[in-house]
Design brief:
The structure is a single chain. The protein has helices at about 5-20, 20-30, 40-65, 70-95, 105-135, 140-175, 175-205. It is mainly alpha-helical and about 220 residues long.
Length: about 220
Amino acid sequence: MLSALSAAVLGFLLGLRHATDADHVIAVTTIVARERTLRRAAWIGALWGIGHTLTVFAVGGTIVAFRLVIPPRLALALEFGVAIMLILLGFSNLRSEAPPAGHGHTHEFDHRRPILIGTVHGLAGSAAVAILVLAAIPETAWALAYLFVFGVGTIAGMMLVTLILAAPAMYASERVARLHGGIRLAAGALSIVFGLMLAREIIVNGGLLSAAPHWTPK
């Protein structure tokens, strides 16, 4: 049984680590590749984390509170949504023009897109997080508290990740203007490739479209 303090510390640290999952990093990289200031990059990471945290707490908390059983096909379908989102993000980067120096992207992009992307990731991860939490912390109140601390750690971790990813690119692009466009295109291509690989994994190995899909929380 985890003590309250150890559960809080563990939840925060696992939230930090959760922010470094490959699909999260690639999604945020694709977004911040369009930005030219560290402040905006950190803000994007925070918004992503907020969208992710609100969804994990709402959906994961419901699973914990009511001890819901998530069908494997539904869990796989939510993860497949992440794959589709990564592919669309990649194409968006390949098609869009880089913003002028000293400016970010459009105001529409400022808030809604990172939150939406974080929400999609949160939906895909809610079931797995809730199941793993229940296995370690059977008490509902403590499990919900853990989900909250986990979410705070995810927000902090994603802000840190975006700063780490954005700083070298922004430093270099200030010296070679065309490099910024190259970084944006490379991030878009990587997002498409990873999204396609993830989609294949879910369909082929997970059996999303088969009669007996199988899903393991991770």
